[in-house]
Amino acid sequence: MTKKPNIVAAGSLNMDLVLTMPRLPRMGETLQGDDIHYISGGKGANQAVGCARLGAAVQMIGAVGGDGFGQQIMERMRHFGVGTETIDVLPDASTGTAAILHTAGDNCIVIVPGANGRCTPEMIDRHSETIAGADSLIVQLEIPLPAVLTALRIAREAGVPTIFNPAPALPLLDEQIRLGDYFTPNETEFEFYCGSPAASEEELFQQMKAWRLRFPEQTLIVTRGKHGISYTAGDEIVTVAAPVVQVKDTTGAGDSFNAALCFGIASGWSLEETLPLAVKAASYSVTVFGAQDGMPSLSDLT
Ligand code: RIB
Q1: Half-sphere exposure (CA, 13 Å, Cβ side) for 53?
Q2: How would residue 104 be classed by pLDDT, with cut points 50, 70 and 90?
């Protein structure tokens, strides 16, 4: 049997309060919703689960509060086979929550970080050996930046490949961006990092080429929803199209993509092998309700 790739995910764990409604309300309007669900989420946890579902051994670094939500989230992680010993339980903090206004085609999210906001560089540092021993590290921006950067620096020093999903978008210095071997914004986030919108696909590709000149050692992958992804391959921009699917829930599609990317890199696959699979994983995830329940196994993708 081949060895399982060994992945560390450092990031957020949230309880998602998903309110399902026929359409989003207008400002000042009261709207009757159809349903409410309490589902484990958070970009870090979703990506950890995504990697585990694909067959990786995953250790999650992060924090939950001492409340019932924290316990439920930890149990859910263990159910998916994610290692939770490296998750701090902070008795005096509330667990992170995300209020998600969900319609069939789209969603809006408000996050209250709670324990996620209390992740410190010291908490990450305690697990430096775990990070240094991984086949790849994946991070996002739902825990404080100093903690994210600590994880990235430990991995970089140890030669562990890093997937930096810069979401939600935050101001970053060039030297911080460089800590990601793979930098994976969605189109809106990429617009933020470039400082200007792209009016056409051609302009997007120009911006991506300019990014490549600025960060020549990094692979930039822009996720583009139903249009798939585009990435820098040397001086070229290559697009991997997404299959057409019946969309039920777009929450966590980006997380599913990033998890599969991380899995492929940790497995030693080439980008040409990994990216079509990762695009398929994201497309699969939108056909299932709930961010973590939509994460595919390898057999779902073949
Ligand atoms: O990427 C989707 C996730 O973003 C949700 O699970 C929610 O918790 C927010 O963090």
Answers
A1: 29
A2: confident
- Ligand 1: atom nearest CA of 15 is 8
Distance linking the first and last C-alpha atoms of the chain: 19
Percent pLDDT > 90 in the chain is 93
Q: Is the minimum distance from the CB of 17 to ligand 1 under 6 angstroms?
A: no
Residue 15, pLDDT score: 97
Residue ranges of domains in the chain:
6-23+35-301
Question: Ligand 1 atom closest to Cα of 291?
Answer: 6
Task: Evaluate the omega torsion of the peptide bond into residue 168 and state whether it is cis, within 30 degrees of 0.
Answer: yes
What pLDDT is attached to residue 13? 98
Which pLDDT tens digit goes with each residue over 15-52? 999 999 999 999 999 999 999 999 999 999 999 999 99
Report the separation in Å between the CA atom of 252 and the middle of ligand 1, taken as the mean of its atom positions.
6
| CA–CA separation, 82 and 76 (whole Å) | 9
Which member of 16, 135, 255, 300 is catalytic? 255
How far apart CA 56 and CA 126 sit, in angstroms, is: 22
Distance 2 CA to ligand 1 centre (A): 32
- Residue of the nearest CA to atom 7 in ligand 1? 42
Whole-structure pTM over 0.90, yes or no? yes
255 part of the active site = yes
Rounded distance from Cα 41 to ligand 1 centre (Å): 5
User: Considering the domain 6-23+35-301 in this protein, what is its CATH number?
Assistant: 3.40.1190.20
Q: How many CB atoms lie within 10 A of CB 216?
A: 10
Residue pair 95/64 in contact (Cβ under 8 Å)? The answer is: yes
